[in-house]
Write a structure and sequence with these properties.
alpha/beta; 132 residues; Rossmann fold
Length: 132
């Protein structure tokens, strides 16, 4: 099944009322301000682009961001947890904390280039309703 077909299946899932929440966790920012809430601004930009991509393709997916230090509480709300490349070594630890969640690491090149198309290819290949 090609990428476009998988996107269509995900879009169809919207009509079934199934919502998917993706949360991207990144390293805590050195500076905590009211604007960035301790999250790397680059990661926030990626989430914004992902939400625009989902809206454009009529996908019922919402992407949010959080700093890694809050994963224990905020990770509970996610259907899919994406880790930024610098957190790749913590993937197994996160899987142990959230065995019922889908955990993936964003490829360094896709993160660096804000390549939401490739990130959504990863999401559509995951095993959850609507991604067959």
């Amino acid at each position: 099944m090609n990428f476009k077909t998988k996107l269509n299946l995900m879009s169809d899932a919207k009509n079934e009322g199934s919502n998917r929440k993706v949360i991207i966790f990144s390293m805590d920012s050195i500076t905590l301000t009211p604007i960035n809430n301790g999250v790397n601004p680059y990661t926030t930009t990626l989430a914004t682009k992902m939400n625009m991509f989902a809206k454009k393709n009529k996908l019922n997916i919402f992407t949010d961001v959080s700093r890694f230090s809050k994963i224990d509480s905020i990770g509970l709300d996610a259907d899919i947890i994406l880790l930024t490349p610098e957190l790749s070594e913590l993937k197994n630890e996160v899987k142990d904390k959230f065995p019922d969640k889908i955990i993936e690491v964003i490829e360094k090149a896709d993160y660096g280039l804000l390549n939401v198309n490739n990130i959504f290819k990863i999401i559509t290949n995951l095993n959850y309703p609507g991604s067959k």
